[in-house]
Model the fold of this input.
Amino acid sequence: MTLTLAGVGYRYAGASRPSLLDVDLELPDGAVVGLVGPSEAGKTTVCLVASGLAPRTVSGQIRGRVLLDGEDVDAWPMHRLSARIGIGFENPSTQLSQVAGTVFEEVAFGPMNLGAARDEVVERTWEALTNMRIDDLAERDPGRLSGGQQQLVAMAGLLAMRPAHLVLDEPTAQLDPAGTRLVGEAIARLAAGGASILVAEQKTDLLAEVADRVVVIADGRILFSGPADETLADPRLVEAGVAEPAPVRLRRAAEAAGLDPARLEVPLDA
Amino acid sequence: MPELRSEGLAHVYRDGGVRALDGVDLVIRPGERVVLVGQNGSGKTTLVRHLNGLLRPTEGRVLLDGADAGGMTVAQLAASVGLVFQDPGRQIFASSVRGEVEFGPRNLGRSGPELRDAVDDALAATGLGGEERTNPYDLGQSRRKLLALASVLAMRTPVLVLDEPTTGQDARGVERVRAIVESAASAGRTVIAISHDMRFAAEVFERVVVMRGGRVIADGPPGEAFAPGAWDGLRSTYLEPPLSARIGDRLGLGSTPTDAALIDALRRSDP
Amino acid sequence: MAGRVRLTDPQPARGLPDFLGRPGPTPVHRLNPLTKATLATVTAVAAVALGGLVGPILLVAVAVLVPAALARVLGRLLRLALLLALPIAISAFLVNLFFFPGAERVLLRIGPITATAEGLEFALQILVRILAISGAVTLFYLTTRPADLVVDLERRGISPRAAFVANASVQTVPAMVDRAAQITAAQRARGLDTEGSLWRRIRGIIPIVGPVILGSIAEVEERTMALEARGFTRPGRRTLLWAPADAGLERLARWAMVAALLALIVARVAGIWT
Done:
């Protein structure tokens, strides 16, 4: 089920200028697309439009079309979209419902809302917990977990909805290195399992590991895009205000010093 | 510029009884650029909150230029030690950027042209000069963080403490923070930062203090703190050495904590 | 992603975890929340409706103290109920003791005011009723988990949105207190004086209240989006994982209590029983 943004423009209610202009983006089944750009370039807006929260919950004017397998979802209500597209945000704690005493109930929140039969709710919840490798946290109080763990719980909560696509808006932005690793590994596992993920990130090193394609956005427009390796090594990336992955940066530094960058290609332990 | 010193500093949080600091002896000389690294819960934030009196020692003491900080109120210490919190959402209250930045220096008794200059400088340093009248909540999250930084910069304290200044910043934001640290340092101010960005730590600071379990487990210049011999210690607190250090080690070039150090070492190893 | 994301090993079938809806420690705890709520309400109303002193005292003994003992919360109940009732109880008692209108039998004279026997009688009656109400409410509070009550109500028909509001409201206060503490720390770090003169401290409230409210409001949008992304706005019922048990006997008991209360009220109003 391909998720497509075709010529999408978006202006938030009350804003003087549009936040997105003429954005074309495709998320096919099983693809991991990274979205990079400087702060306030429109990455969050793309995520909100892709998930349907804009213009339904976050008011504004939308131009262009959002399509699921070719069908325009313009008239779909939010709860219908939320079963197909899951969206995660950067703040780990505001994504928690705050009404669940245990991680199990937190993750079950979504399927419960969908009105699925109880057995199915339970099955989906365990499935999601296992995928995120947090079965052992099932009985814990979500409010007392670390930021990284909370992000995993939030992602499990999305997975329990069995969405066709996952949209993640800077999931590691507020996490420490341990949390970033947890979430990065989870994303890599999902990607390896064939999930479709649109992930906005500043950490291009993370995208170098998991993304198939990378899209570069600035000032509400797509600057360029392409296969992950190529795009992340493109010199225009830095000009656009995005930090290149560390290996790319080091290669460039070596070249600038007149050294052979190939000397830096050494196998490192995991 | 004051010297900051902790002697046998320990802190136990009242609720939960967690011994977040377990005997820290640290001396920070005037004008030093120090970065504290270590996983969440290693005691970094607890430590820096003792420097401006927000937390008081359970054992030991904190000295500001030889005087016991225990005898000073937080408001008094704030004139010497400016602490920028990690989450801007927990302090912004003014309806304009300028108003927000003025709060700190006003509390310290600044007014008139002195106040104006301090605010102007802080706004310029954080790139918010054009947003004076903007409502802080109309700024994006990353610029709000810069606003929080500006509001403490304007206080012109001799010691500046930054809690995770680069988290959530894009490349340009990180550059701004770097420039602010360097300019504060060249003005002779002491800069203490908490960071989990190892590259930022290695490139911008002259001293790296590694913490774990409420104690300092390593303390030295980046070349030492990120040297291969120190990696086990780093990993024990969930940190990874910068890529340049790992490549340098693989190539047998010794300790290369920064890009520049690695390139330098490569050049020197040319036959 | 149905079928898209493959698990590494096939997982054994796992049912509803047993830590959900764990029954309470005593039979009283395990009573359905609605039953306990009915008991508390009927007790409180009956305490007022019953005449005299003996009736309410017996009521407190049977409907509050005995269940509390069975639930092993008697000590806590006495402490909490007294604490809750104390301010009102003391003032009501004293006012009636000394200022009961039309009283003749004097017990004690302290300067211009007199304690009367009629006053004492009435004051005791008021006291017992206040303690009965306080005890009934406290008993309910001590033997019922708020989440259980909300789930039970939702099972009986309140909307999931209403249930959510009920549950989330409980969270609001501690979250705000926490936020206020963090904001206070940040403002103090910018020189806000919270240790100086009273006037300074009063002035210092503004830079704290502002962010508490603004920050909470700003968070509301994020939280709303996260909820909507999980199907919160889907109309109609949602599936509940569990609900507190409700036995036919309890249902009978609830009706019986309400019927008894109505009978009592009718009897009192009709003057049959004083």
